[in-house]
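EI: anyone free to look at a 254-residue chain?
SC: sure, send it
EI:
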Amino acid sequence: MSRKKCLQPLQLQQNNITVLDNKKLDNKLKVKIEDLYDIQPLTKNQSKFFNLYDESSFILLHGVAGTGKTYIALYKAIQQVLSKDNRYHNVIIVRSAVPSRDVGYLPGDIHEKAEVYEKPYQDICDSLFARKDSYQRLQEQKNIKFMITSYIRGITIDNSIIIVDECQNMTDMELNSIITRVGDRSKIIFCGDFRQTDLYKKFDQSGLKKFMLITELMQSARTIEFDNDDIVRSKLVKEYIVARNVFEDMYEVA
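SC: here you go
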């Protein structure tokens, strides 16, 4: 990142995007609610989430790949944070650093280590807004923050919408650490599918199944189960996932 003479004071050029100091952020460059596309649910369970969103502060979206769980969760969260009558300060996306469980093994500072795991959310924001710099701008505006589970211990998250993505790749300890970080006036949404876990080591296993059983004992928790009928990614993906589920049921493959 280097200074350019052609830019205004306190402006920098980063990845071909003009970056402004937060205190001097030009109003024309800010991401506003008007920039957000109007997204409508495509399936029955997506509609169920849209209807449930305002009623519950603890939602678990569980089910097969390609059903848009993360997409609709991020859309609703951003929509609420940018709205004028918003009571939440920001959206916090939490994800586990799998396969390198400890990001200390990756080169660079915290931001550089997390970049590879942030890419899906940059892509989602690109498709949600009528502009291609939305994710970076939302970060500059303090509307979005990305965290990995290694750095979530010891904090309390107030006034935020927390999206815990790919939660099947979190251990019981990680899931416990996240849910116990939720503070006052916060909403939390978990997205995942225990069938898609990347954790196979004996002492590093997914805690999602146990977590789901625990949430069944909680009156405030709401779970929406996404199935093959909710797959919206493509016909090929739907055909493959249906075939894979049939295969695993036939041969009892975990």
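EI: The longest strand covers residues 58-63.
SC: 👍
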